[in-house]
Amino acid sequence: MLLAELVVLGLAYGLLFGVLALGLTLIWGVMKVVNIAHGDFVIVGAYSSYWLFVLAGVHPILSILFTAPFGFGLGIIVYLGLVRRVVHAPELMSLFLTFGISTLISSLLLYIYSPNQRAISVTFPSINGLGVVLPGNVAIAAAYAVVVATLLRIFLTKTYWGKAIRAVTEDSSSALLMGINPEAVSMLAFGIGVAIASSVGSVVMLLQAVYPTGGSEFTLLAFVIVVLGGLGSPFGALLGGIVIGVVDNVASLYLPAAATPAIGFIILVIVLIVRPSGIMGAKGR
Amino acid sequence: MNRNTYKSHTSNSEMLAFGESKARRAISRTAGIGIVVLLLIVALGGAYYYTTTLGSATTSSSSGQTTTTTTTTTPYTGPTKITIGMTMPLSGSLASDGVMSLDGLKMWAASVNASGGIYVKSLNHRLPVQLIYYDDTSTASVVATDYQQLVAQGVNFLVAPYSSGLTLAAAPIAETNHLLLISHGGASDSIWSKGYKYVVGVLSPGSQYAIPVLQMLENQNSSTPLKVAFFFGNDAFSISVKTGALAFINSTSGKFSVVYNQLYDESATSYTAQLSQIQAASPDVVIGGAHFADGETIVKNIQSLGLHFKMVSLLVAPDDPHFLSDLGSLANNVAAPSQWESNLDFTHFSPYYGNITGAQFLSQFQSSFNMPPNYEAAEAYNTGLVLQRAISDSGSLNSTIVRNQLSSENIWTFYGNFQIGPTGIQSGHTMVVMQWQNGAKQTVWPRAVATSPFVYPAP
Amino acid sequence: MGDLLRLTQVAKRFSGLEVLKDISFEVAEGEVLGLIGPNGAGKTTLFNIISGILKPNSGRVVFASKDITGLPTHRVSRLGIARTFQIPQPFAEMTVLENVRATLLFSNPRPEGKLPRDAKEICEMVGLGGRLEQPAGSLSAPEKKRLEVARALASSPRLLLLDEFAAGLTLSESSWASEMIKSLSKDYGVTIVWTEHVMKILMRSVERVLVLQSGEVIASGTPAEVVKNELVLKAYFGGKPA
Amino acid sequence: MSPLKLTGFTLTRRRSAEMAVILVLLALLLVAPTFFARISVLFFILNWIVLAESFNMFAGLTGYVNFGHVVFYGVGGYVSALLMVNAHASPYVAVIAGGLASSLLALGISLPTTRLRGAYFAIATLSINEAFFVTFDSWDAVGSAPGLSLPISYYQPVVEYYVMVVVAIACVLSMYAISKSKFGIALQAIRQQEVTANSIGINAAYYKSLALVFSGFFAGLAGALAIWQITFIDPPSAFNVTITVTSISMAMLGGLGTVIGPVIGGALLYELTDLLGLSYPFIHLIILGVIIVGVVLVIPDGILGASRRVLTKVRGRR
């Protein structure tokens, strides 16, 4: 029964992880930029939700209505001001730039809000079913993840701009021939990626304490998931998230608790050795 | 345009200098530029250190010369201030602890200087104190270089950075330069097992942390052995707490039985799996924790899983005032071993030193920094008090003399007793146990200082 | 004199899709073999298998009486098989001369080889004498094709694989290409396999043609014979005469 | 004419001037401990130069971003620390053992990972580093989370400094030798077009492994020397991703793929963070962030590339 409970918990966390990674994979897919600041945008969202809650009493779930558009705007500003310049540069250049952005965001947060950890106490009742208990906050996080994944899927398959993003991801040169403006698509993808990260921050506020320099942990998690699933593949990101979520939770049953974080990384390395471009990755990339 | 810039960046044609003199000239030029830049760095660095280290030495000696020739009365030619050097983790993973500690020291320095400084008998002068602090970014290598910088600047005494690991990185520099290093936030017992002479601690070492909690439980008249789950984080400090707790349990013969004993990963997003396993072992009490965020998450997870234990005692997190504001009613009945609580009163002990009580410390800190202090701030302030006492008692700014003076001090401050063992380890100070009761922090152990009875078992 | 290259029942699948089905043929020493077929017929895959970039699922590749099936690319190269890429892939930041020199440095010259071993000479041979110091990345598309040949020649190959070599070249450039190929075969004794999906250019310079369609050899013979083959006309030219 | 001849050396006036400057600089490094009190700053400048240069030795030459570079530093540090703490080994032996252990590890890592391309390689190496971090963090035989601390008898700052000087010189000279050799040309070819490199007879997998082994060796030496100097090692300080990212930043700041670039970048960035940390303890990281972003936007080709551009422009105007 404990196993079933952990699998359910892992699935729920995995969905959230997957959505976190969706933002990263979208940006990678369109402009081949590895965004090291991804986790810092999560923290920015989390802090926004924290202050909205503390100062105005806005419920963290409601504050997504603010953090998502805020993240979108922030993403577009960062794209236009900085990231745009390195889209065509070698991979390392964008890595270096986003590292700089990450340092800047985390150190500004540190300076403004002090290094103290922040948490809020909003709890939802646990969900009991079939002998399995799922903490209410985790269930809400999973529900959020499902909504975002569904919305993104509809956007990517039904709208012009969504299709344009997919076209550029698959083959940027032929997308160019089809009359798609790659600049606009990149801007949009970066905006959506940051919006997702920032809204994940609101949900994270329901689950744990945050602190200004905690972004790198989310970045690392998103990296691992994205590569596990196959860079640029949204479905792969969700799948990778679920794999990591379930493995992370179930492994603690069989291994010393302190050693469980290694499992995700070891799985990733093994997957890459067997399938050098991830589970859902394109062949021969 | 950008594309072109990157092209020229990646064009390392000189790497493949296939015999072309042009390429070779390019290497020469770039190497030349490189060397000039390097020289500039060395020169700038040298100038900086000259002004900060040698510079200060020359100004004091020259001022001495001028005064001796022009005045008739015996002028004061000694140092004009007591300099205390340290690094603190002001950024990085330990930043919140580092900032809190630094604030405690700043508050001490301000109060000393407001009262005119410390009287140094050997100089027959009252000198103000000056804190010199750098950010070590929670990184050991920065500690290593910055303590050398402090030594080079000629500081009189050193205060250790927050945390055991960083203290261990600072210790050899203090030791080889014969400078006193007072540790206020390094609780690992291993610091005092290396044979350092100049490293002194003001706080109870990690091995002592869980003992009052266990003593308190021992007192709760249970006839059968109390079932304990140990659930500590995986870090040096928490492990030393667990080691001390296990040693204590082994010495009590049959009062406790350990039914669960695992370390956890402090960065985990949830501890549900382990908590379920703990529940399966059906312990009476859970003793563990590590830092702030993980402590809060554990309490939240216990609530969301609907688990109930007679007592939950965690390290660090419950002692932080944010614990209540973050968790609200969930905080109730959670206990923690604590180095210090503001409601403790030691004024009836003697010799009492420092003209400040716990309550005064609380209110002064609150008004200076606009937030309530935690025990890290108190430890740091107490570090200042202890140093101040040893300087006035020995009448010297010499680290070796002050270190020897510390060996014979047995004083009380708002933080409790100060007395050190032969290795420099703190032996006088004792831990207390705090517990959240109806939204208020209460000291529940030892009975002599308790502000409220221990709520056990938790309702 | 035996065959220089012999393929026996080579097959290749990509995630279930059969790209090559039991291909068998041989190339005689000194021959110029044309390999034609529509896009997606498997020509590049075949080259990738011969040059060791891909491993076949089954079948054998024998070069100069040595089984080279699945041998890594660099070893295949050192045995004397050079190739050009359909889309030129030079070392973009190196100059033309450096591209050729790097190849000379790592190739394994054959004592009986007649090809020049001097980078400048090779560049002049393919008409790049005036571009020696230019970074390869900044060459025009036809010049890059010439560089592909220069680089291939620098490894003093016994067998040269030309992948869609004339595609995208103007008329005068492609006639230069066929002249050069003839001369390589005649004057330097290089065996050549040349793929093209446009038949015309190839027909003038090859002795024998294989027609590949959907991973199978559907016809072989002299250019004149192949052009008349019903199957080829139907499959390749959609039934209309060339 | 063979390309290898090009490493031939002709003494021109410019070159002798250059040699003079290098010799003066070396002499300064050698006598520094007599007048410079903060010798550990010089030590860590050299330590970072070795880290940046060893990163460059693989990534700069092959174009593959090794995001787990610090794993060599950490393993080198741990191996030497274990030898000193448990076997009371001579620090020289321990440092060399640390370097060798890391080069062995590099060989092991290279076998499965050199098949991976681009970002996949970067993240696979990052994951290997994280797996090492977590393993060491819960492995009692290597001290687990509390880490290891050297007996104070090992603490000899001046000796450590001179060993560091030797290692740094060896590292930069190795990079120079590699980039001027056939090996370096192979790596250049791999970076620019790996498929083509293979098809002209370059055994890319072999050369990449070899480059990683060299890179790992020097990073391992750097790690072993750092623990000798700091006297304390624990998993967060040994396998810290920030060290990798800082090494990358240093190499890029100076000029990736060049010999002298990481030397300039390493010295400059370290000294900058050091001075900023000393002067502005609360805002130095903000300043650092601004500088990094500024470097990407203003001199994306690093200091060497930028100065080359400026010089070309000046020459053009003349």
Count the DSSP helices of chain B. 13
**Major β-sheet profile of chain B:** 7 strands, mixed
Kindly state the number of beta strands of chain B.
Answer: 16
Q: What do the pLDDT scores of chain B average to?
A: 83
Describe this protein's structure.
- The complex is a heterotetramer of chains A (285), B (459), C (242) and D (318).
- Chain A has 285 residues and is mostly helical.
- Chain A is built from eleven helices and two strands; from the N terminus they run ααααββααααααα.
- Chain A has a two-stranded antiparallel ribbon with strand order 1-2.
- The mean pLDDT of chain A is 87.
- Chain B has 459 residues and is an alpha/beta fold.
- In chain B, helix 10 links the parallel strand 11 (311-314) and strand 12.
- The longest helix of chain B is centred in the first third of the chain and has 50 residues, at 21-70.
- Chain B is elongated.
- Chain C is of the alpha/beta class.
- The radius of gyration of chain C is 17 Å and the shape is globular.
- In chain C, the strands form two sheets. A six-stranded mixed β-sheet of chain C has the order 6-7-8-3-9-10, with helices on both faces. In chain C, strands 2-1-4-5 form a four-stranded antiparallel β-sheet, covered by helices on one side.
- Helix content of chain D is 76%, strand content 1%.
- Chain D has 14 helices and two strands, in the order H-H-H-H-H-E-H-H-H-H-E-H-H-H-H-H.
- Chain D has helices spanning 13-35, 39-62, 70-86, 91-113, 118-137, 157-180, 182-192, 194-199, 204-230, 235-238, 241-254, 261-279, 284-298, 302-317; strands at 148-149, 232-233.
- Chain D has a two-stranded antiparallel ribbon.
- Chain D is globular.
- The two termini of chain D are 34 Å apart.
- Chains in contact: A-B, A-D, B-C, B-D, C-D.
